[in-house]
Amino acid sequence: MKHSNNIRLALAALMGAAAIGFASCEDQPDEYKSTSGSPEVQYVRLPESADSVITKSYLQATVCLVGNNLRSIRKLLFNDQEALLNTSYITDNTLLVDIPKNIPAAVTDKIYMINEAGDTTTYDFHVIVPPPVVSAMSCEYAAAGDEVTLTGDYFIQDPYKPLKVKFNDGTLPVTDIRSISKNSITFTVPAGAQSGRVCVESVYGESRSQFVYKDNRNILFDFDGSHGGLAGGHGWRPGRIRTGGIDGSYLYLGGAAMLGKVGATWDEDDFAMNYWPEPSAGFPELTAIPSFANMLDTCDIDDLALKFECRVPETSPWSASALQLIFTGNQDVTALTANSQYYNNADIARGLWIPWQTTGSFSTGSGWTTVTIPLSAFNKTHEGQAAGKTVAKNRMTGFTFFLWNGGVEGTDCTPDLDIDNIRVVPISK
């Protein structure tokens, strides 16, 4: 439990503070004895800092109440939200507690402490509700008129200040919001939406999305050159390109049977795309593309993610093998050293996308979805084991998609995967 983890970490800090004159919450559970009377809170502080005094803190934060007769507390609330009390972390003089995660319905800016007799003692304290956190969008390349869902946190609909969603870096409002929960907003993309951040404004503040809508930065493959990306692969399997997708032409993988048994189907013709560099023939090393090279120079691998849009029709669901995402270096393969041995080279760390693993089968319905895989997750072997390393900058001159293996048992299927706008972008910039 998050509460228990927070408490344990805070307890360690609190025990250190005891050495400089503050009582700790170190008592053994079997030694706890409740008291009568009413509590007195002198101040609230951070658990890890003995000389800190705070008057406010965020939801789910751990705080320490300091005062007298705190063992008399039977029930404690922040505004109208009850906190979980653990007697292991309560003494006469200190009480360690997590502020509840739920947003209060009635904001009074008080802590309520109720004793055995039912008497209530209050203490002034402000619980801060953060501004919205806009983490992801179901499809970053959705067109105007399409229904999409934002996910994140603290999407609060207040009757006196309704929640707002705005495109074009906060200048174009959404007028058709279908539903709102604390962690998601479903709405229709407005006419005139252009590439930029999506902003969400609540009664508690305004925030910009961590992603960019229709992000055209550093697109490696767009399969038609519309965003400056490459128009296809280069190798034994350059990929089957179709038109009329979410954003022009797209890569198609599928049209054949995929057996559920791990590694049983090896079908490069239907389920692979190779890009092996050959600069002399007009196929540059990916790391020679200026935008990609600059990003690798200025960002750590852990700060980057591979993104693409994908459609898996509900008529052709996917339930076997992993989509292997393999960056390769010139030491692994080029057009002049063409080979397939790198597919099962355990020294080449790669990403694996297996969205059907938890549900047994996966489709995106009739629409497209944005797939985001941090480069820090490019740490697997072809069999799904830990590679003991992540993708390295000197092994990013080429790229391969291959639907194969992954180390997870599935079920027989005939999947179709449509893929577009393959890009590497900063995770939160």
Name the beta content range: 25-35%
Write down the secondary-structure element order.
Answer: HEEEEEEEEEEEEEEEEEEEEHEHEEEEEE
Number of strands: 27
Measured between the Cα atoms of the first and last residue, the distance is 31 Å
The total number of structural domains is: 3
Biggest β-sheet strands, sense, barrel: 6 strands, antiparallel
**CATH architecture descriptor of the largest domain:** Sandwich
Query: Would you tell me the structural class of the helices and strands?
Result: mainly beta
Helicity level, as a percent range?
under 10%
The value of Rg in angstroms is: 27 Å
Regions with little confidence, pLDDT below 50 for 5+ residues: 7-29
Describe the structure using short key phrases.
7% helix, four-stranded antiparallel sheet, Jelly Rolls, Immunoglobulin-like, mainly beta, 3 domains, six-stranded antiparallel sheet, 429 residues, elongated, 3 helices, single chain
Can you describe this structure?
- The protein has 3 domains: 127 residues, Sandwich (Immunoglobulin-like), CATH 2.60.40.10; 76 residues, Immunoglobulins (Immunoglobulin-like); 208 residues, Sandwich (Jelly Rolls), CATH 2.60.120.
- It has 3 helices and 27 strands.
- It has 429 residues and is mostly beta strands.
- The chain is 7% helix and 31% strand.
- The longest helix is centred in the first third of the chain and has 17 residues.
- The strands form 7 sheets. Strands 18, 19, 20, 22, 25 and 27 form a 6-stranded antiparallel β-sheet that branches. Strands 5-4-7-8 form a 4-stranded antiparallel β-sheet, with no helix packed on it.
